[in-house]
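#struct-pred

JT: dropping the chains for the assembly here, can someone run the whole complex?
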Amino acid sequence: MSENSANKFGFTINPSRLINYDTSDRKVRDYVTRKEPSFKLCFACGGCTAACTAGQYTSFNLRRMNTYIRRGEIAPLREEVTRCMLCGKCLLVCPRGVNTRNVVAVASEAIRKFERNEL
Amino acid sequence: MSAAVKHIIVAGGGVAGMEAAGALAELGHRVSLVEKEKKPGGHLLQWHALFPDHRPADEVKHYLNVRIKNENITLYTGTGVEKIKHHGHEVVVTLTDGTAINADAAIIATGFDLFDAHRKEEYGYGIYDNVITSAELEDMFTAGKVTTTDGSIPSRVGLVHCVGSRDEKVNNNHCSKVCCVTAVKQAIEIRKQLPECEVFCFYMDMRMYGPYYEELYRESQEVYNVNFIRGKVSEASVNINNRLVIKVEDTLAGRPLKMELDMMVLMVGMEMSKSGTLLAEASGLKRGVNRFLETGDHHYGNNLSSIRGVFYAGTCTAPMNITDTISHARAAVSETVRYLNSR
Amino acid sequence: MNSELFVIPFNFGLYFILIYSVVRSTIWFRNLSRADKLRLQRGFFGKPFMQSIKEIFMESLLHRKMFKRNAMLGYMHMSLAFGWFLLIVFGTIEADTFSARHFNPPSHSIFFRAYNPDHGAYGLERVFSFWMDFLLAFILSGLLLAMLKRFIPGMMGMKKTTKHTWIDRIALLSLWLIFPSRLLAESFTCGAYGSGSFLTGNLGSALASVLPAGDIAPYFWWLYSLALGTFFFLLPVSRYFHIPVEMFLIFMRNSGIKTGDKPSSYTEVQAHACSSCGVCISTCQMSYAAGINDMQSAYFIKGLRNEKDIAAITANCLMCGRCEEVCPVGIELGPMRMIERRQGMRDVRPLKFPEGYALTRKRNFLERVPTQSYSYLADEEPVKADVLFFAGCMTHLTPSIIVAMKKIMDSAGVRYHFMDEKGGVCCGRPLMLAGREKEARELINHNSDIIWKSGAEILVTSCPICYKVFNESYYLETRVMHHSEFINLLIEEGSLRLGYLHRKVVYHDPCELGRGSGIYQEPRTVISYVADLQKSPQEENMALCCGGSLGNLTLSSGKRALIAADAARILTSSSPDELITACPLCKKTLGQATEIKVTDIAELVAAALPRPIPLAKTRTKKILAKTENNG
Amino acid sequence: MKIDGKKRIWAEYQKDIPDDHFFYVRSCIRQTFFAGSEQTFLKIMRDDLGKDMFEDPRHTTCTGIGYHGDIVPFETIQTVVARHFALATEAGYKNIAISCVTSFGIYTEILETWKHFPELLAKTRESLYEATGRTFELPESIAHASDIIYKFRDEIARKAKYNLVDISTGKPLKVVEHIGCHYAKMFPNYGIGGAEFPHVLVGMIESWGGDVIDYPERRHCCGFGFRQYLVQANRGYSVFATRKKLESMEPYRPDMIVANCPGCAMFMDRWQYTIKEIDDVTYGHDGQGIPVLTYEEMAGLILGYDPWKLGLQYHNVQSLPLLRKMGIKADPALRFLAKDGSRLPEPANLINS
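RK: done, full complex below.
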């Protein structure tokens, strides 16, 4: 559809960037919160992201990843979660004692389950 | 200090005025406490529970009422203060009902007005059902049930911070200080009353500056699963089911966010009170940033006015929580006494 | 004695378990890799054989390790195991000596007294029946202790004791019944015939004086036989299966079979060789410091045996390795857990009662697809250097260590390249600990490439976590050294001029460096060289974990703090001036748990440096020469 | 929804609209795509309401599209607008009636600017004089043409031949009103009803018997957005914005959309075809599309004008079902006839033709 319309009009309709909280799926969030309750404590200071080892090489941003989990934005989360090296450096930085490393571990597990409809 | 009994007029019977009057009467002075409403107590009257510990507001109301039960205090209600001027050794105070009272000194404690939510038209306060103010939510707590206008239990409530604060569009650049922690307190109370109800706070910054505030914030996440979204709500509308639809940027995701709500609570901030403004204009009192009364010195003269014998107490000078208001009122009393003795 | 029917339960049980054990071990053998098969064969017909026999005697019968740990606990196990062993041996001899035919069925000796009620009147018979009574008493004394232990674990230096399944309970009950019932059976018989020695004889006559002993005796022989039968029959599905399996394990281990990195019959044998004695539980800091009592190795192994869902247990372990040190059966608990962590998600179905007898396990794992991917890592510009310094992620949060190392290497004139000065790629160990082997490989390859291209002779790291993985999972010709080793080397070859600091210090062995990599001596040598090193209550192979371990994925910060506080309390009990460690993670974790200054060994040494004087470059040449000799 | 709340706001945002004598400035887009509308407006004003509307053929584009497209500098556009004022002054008119919302925005912006920066006014007078030798007075009032219809909405209602009512059921039609962004979002006080809850179209719809739909994306831009439309590669944003509005109003099953901005009417109509082509989606009752009318066309229908003289047939979404609903007799066969009665080619790809 989009190709021939592109040929026809020279453009396609832009996809939405909107986070639609009423349609997004928050099963992953609930799973992560259940498996790693400290996740709730994040107040998005970004300390983890500042310290992040993987963050020096790629756009990985744990703070934003947490936000995606909370909002049920699976697509960007799937992308984001793979980049972490699980080195655990962020654990030592978090002012709220969030078990950040396990948040990633659990999130990646949750994504897998989500894709196998096990959530 | 001189044993002579002096007469002091306290303009405004809110927290600051009552504390100041009580403290002066305690020292044996004669006090005329002037309150424009039917009964003293100010905004505290409509509060159900107080942050950060959810203590019943009645406890503080009770404390203040006992404080002003003193034969040295004459209470004038239903009349405001129109004008104060210094004359000879005295201050002359004109009430709104025309009567003029002479006194040795006066304390202005005219307090604040809550921001009128109508002025943020885009939030549709007074137009959409279920858009209410934090004060109205307190009434619901007092009534013991939080419901939408059709009487049903809300399944999702949003609390919008900084309504009328930190917003040059309504000509208020100041932070009202108490709204963030009030929002967190109210969010917890909603979750306590309606465990099934999702609660969201839409904030620009979380300003948890006081003792136990940060703890309350943490508790709201850890125990009550209150959600926080960093972004200023830009507008509200209703959909075909008469459910509120709000737009906000989720600044942490860097993307616009849309959410349906059953109830939207506007955390209305503090503004210089209208009565206080009129009084200041009539009496030629200087007003400072954001139209609150300008004090003699921000650091060591925070109760001093530009008129001899006239002092400031409480939120007529800046937004304050109850704790600070009471301390500020006591400071005003000590300034007043110092003035009276030095005369 | 008219009927002999009562031997039936015993015989049934005995022959069942004999056959079962043979079949099961054959299958285990068959499932071994070819290499391991050969190992085991050589082990059986070679030198290791005697070693194994000796070990079986020392451990399975005498329970030497148990004795070392706690005399009473040792005695308990010894009296039961060794006592029972002797009872069988001498029972057989007795039966053999005093019966008409030789080579009688086992039941003959087990129920000897039942067949020969009047036996033991005089001469050699007397001696024997005395000796048999003595052995029985010996066992019963142990049994008494065992029962006490159930109810007051504390008495044997055990902080916690294992919780059991209902099968274990029945097995336990039958085990407990065996000897009392034998005692009573024999006593009644002796009472009826006026035979028996100091125990059975006296008890017998006492009983006979009030009861019709002759009529009652058969019931107890039945009970005795039933107890034995039940016990034997339940053996494969109860914890007591460890008794035969442990011997098999000893043979396998002594023939040099290792756990490896995937499930095998060796891991299965290890799982079955666990006696759930609970020593691991009481050694575990998560238990006594953080009050977590259901995640320890005993439960891990039990879950593994019974196919339970142990995902949570598997993840919730510090991987400090203390339990492995004390395991009396010598199970490789660390590697066992790592294997489990490496497995993908699987649909778990706990075994129901009879399934425990199944001869082979089929564990249907889903192939674990990598959850992480580092395709974004680009190749880096190679830098030539003699010595590479890799600080490690954590070390970047303790800059004082980096500064110290720079000082030391400069003052020794080491020509080094700071590999991760701008923050490098993670070493991969944390991923391994999280069971993400494939992903870890990606990082390992990336780093290996940099190291190879550098052509460095030595790779120095300040982080034991990196150290372990560099050593074990990287293929390098570069010699890997933890900075404590490297500093020691510099001192030995005289490149460092150090003063003496008059400080009383205690050294904390980081798990990954000590138990993990066997580096105990070098740090101590270095520290004693510059300061007054005190002993700490628990060190070297029994050193404590600081609680910060990356081995544990799920432990909350609160619980970690509890462990750290407890460890710090013990480490600083002699109130030293400083607590020395050799790991940035330990430094950070312990630092938050004690008032006493926590210093990295590098910082300590740097403090002992004189004002830095540039030294001849030839120094490093010396180092390199030395390292070549070392291998 | 509390109507009192809205009334309260509408009360705050009222503006004085002169009663008569207007200098009318046309709109580039409206006269190109909705030629009938401007004709109708003048006809209504002159014939039905007997007002004096003056047009000067020398008046030009305000260059607003060029201005918002970053092609025309502010100085230039000020001078162009000044010239229009000059024409009005020369003709002796003090009230400007503006057909285009973009122009309306430009005019208000410039007048506000001059209020705060008199030096710019002086400079503009200079440049205009240098360029054309013209001088000008500032107008006493500027009104958007929709403001004027709004003012006379009740008078029109009295003359009405039809109402915004479904004659088969007697129920009011569901009408979506769309206000051009530049009508009040920049200067709320210049728009009737302000920026958040404009009343200008609501007033007409309600006094002509229709029901207004207040849907979540009511405030959202139609998608024109100048840069979004003018640069072909950006048109995806433009369509996206329109689709967002259509999706949001869809559940209310609207009978028509009315816009006071020519651009909005144009895009909300044409993009429905584009969306049909790309997404294969058409909105409205059983996929008949949602007719988009200008307020002039709406007023024309009310007053019983011939739909084909209004030019409804030149919309992409044809409005036959709507006309039927309102009980307006209109023969589809007569849609595409020239003045002389000869048949014009029928445009392709009309929705619900």
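JT: nice. The interface with chain B takes residues 1-2, 4-6, 8-9, 194-197, 214-219, 251-252 of chain D (CB under 8 Å). The longest strand of chain D covers residues 174-178.
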